Amino acid sequence: MNGASIQRRLNDIKGHYDVAVIGAGIHGAAVAWEAASRGLSIILLDKGDFGCGTSSNSLKTIHGGLRSLQRLDFIALRENSQERRALMRIAPHLVQPLQCVIPTYRKLSKSRLVMGAGLKLYNLAVMDRNAGLDPALQLPPAQIITRQEMHELVPELDDAAVTGGACWHDAQVYNTERLVLAFVLAARQAGARVVNYLLNKEYIVKNNKVAGLLAQDPFCGEAIKIEAGAVIDCTGPWAAQNSSFQAHAQLGRTHQVSPPVSMARAVNLIIRKRITSCALGARTCTDQVDNRLLFIVPWRTGSMIGTWYYHDANVPEHLSLSGQELADCLNQINSIFPALDLTPADVTFVHLGLLPAYPGSANSVGEPRLWGHSRIIEASQSGGPGGLFWLQGTKLTTARAQAVKTIDRVARYLKKPIQRSQTYKIPLYGGEIADYASYQQNCMANLANHWTRQTITRLQRNYGSNLDAIISKADDDETLVELVPGSADVVKAELSYIIENEQVYRLSDLLLRRTDIGSFAQPAEATIAYCADVMAEYWHWNEPQREENIAEFLLRYSHIAQTYSQE
What we know:
- This protein has three domains: about 5-55 and about 175-255 and about 385-415, FAD/NAD(P)-binding domain; about 90-175 and about 260-355, D-Amino Acid Oxidase, Chain A, domain 2, CATH 3.30.9; about 435-565, Orthogonal Bundle (Helicase, Ruva Protein, domain 3), CATH 1.10.8.
- About 35% of the residues lie in helices and about 25% in strands.
- It contains 16 helices and 19 strands.
- The chain has helices at about 5-15, 25-35, 65-70, 75-90, 110-125, 145-155, 175-190, 325-335, 400-415, 435-445, 455-465, 465-475, 490-500, 505-515, 525-540, 545-565, and strands spanning about 15-20, 40-45, 60, 95-105, 145, 165-175, 195, 200-205, 210-215, 225-235, 245, 255, 260-270, 280-285, 290-300, 300-310, 345-355, 375-380, 390.
- Strands 1, 2, 7, 8, 9, 10, 11, 12, 18 and 19 form a ten-stranded mixed sheet that branches. Strands 3, 4, 5, 6, 13, 14, 15, 16 and 17 form a nine-stranded mixed sheet that branches.
- The two termini are about 40 Å apart.
């Protein structure tokens, strides 16, 4: 980035805001959109890129509350069902139905009779699951399926004890990074300032109230003062590191207040083999771990499997999975599917994140026990300054609902009247699609001369209603119709659109979080080189800067490979 670009960026930040939000994962992004849509002036900042942390680590599943039924937690069930419906309504290109199954057995607690009764109760609890949804995205009721139907869905599950299956539909996010971005850029369109790569260095406290923060631009090192009536910290595990408050200079004292949280490292593996055509919940049977529930989800051309949780006392800047941990994970998967005989060579990508857990606790398989619900914590309740709030989120599914509650609370603190929340129905960035079936058909008919069905589908799912702007770029410059070298379905026009409109500063931003080029496995060398050249031309990188960006991106893959090969 050149000096003029940096200065424009810093000038755009200056001013006084009702609220400053730190951390642009799914919770910070949802809070920013909620605040901006309800009339508050807001700035959202992150020390890295939007959605570069835990929000990119999930099974990409939006849950409708079936798991809450096991705990008879009907409040959580209803919230999950409503939020699944909201996300499918406001981002129909990114969030679509996903069939899920769990095998039934002769044992009474896992039998067709008991599971069937549970599904009937669930259907009653979510009778409004399709209210307001596009007809193409509506979810069928949950039901029990036969042993033959179960085998047809999951032929790899060779278990003679299976008597059938419990079948229901949740939703899957095609690209979680772009879902986070959709919230961020919807907030920007509503007037919010959204800034990635801006580091929060210190909170400003006056008269025992937060009055803003001091931030630093990593590109030039310049410090900038941001004034705000309230600050919402959505940085999750990093919140404790942000909790040193410099009081008014005349007081000469510092507050040390930390949110009460312990963290668990969450792990999901991407496997190059497609194991199932739907999401499957199956239990392991190994010497180390017996009866542990894993979910196997179809993902791109392969599968995503998880989630494993590990105790993490510290908050490392770069999370990793050891060779022994990987071997244990693969051993558990192979206990479900012995014929697959998966090895580390079958792993193309590892997703890692941190989630709040109860200190020193463990579940039935020895893993840390996660929080069941998100929490909104006020620093003033622990002796800290007024106006500082921590949102410790637990689920991607309920991030929007937690954002509503957080902004309601912050508005009361600010004593500012705000509009009623409408974010459950207002389309996000890219989500302005009135009829999804017609949208698909029109795209296929109009773009068939340009691209294959595979490419068109991928463009639809990633960009939604913004696809028109990408097509316009291709119409203006016929070279942009071409595919990116080394790629089967990525179009040059989308790179041009993204770089110009979506605040991309690093090669990793482009390959991991704006496109899905690097979401399944390490891209081809030609693809990486071309994308680096495009970024270098736009941001005037010199050769060392270009090479630095490539090396940083490749660490996302080579670090994992080196770890496994050394152990």
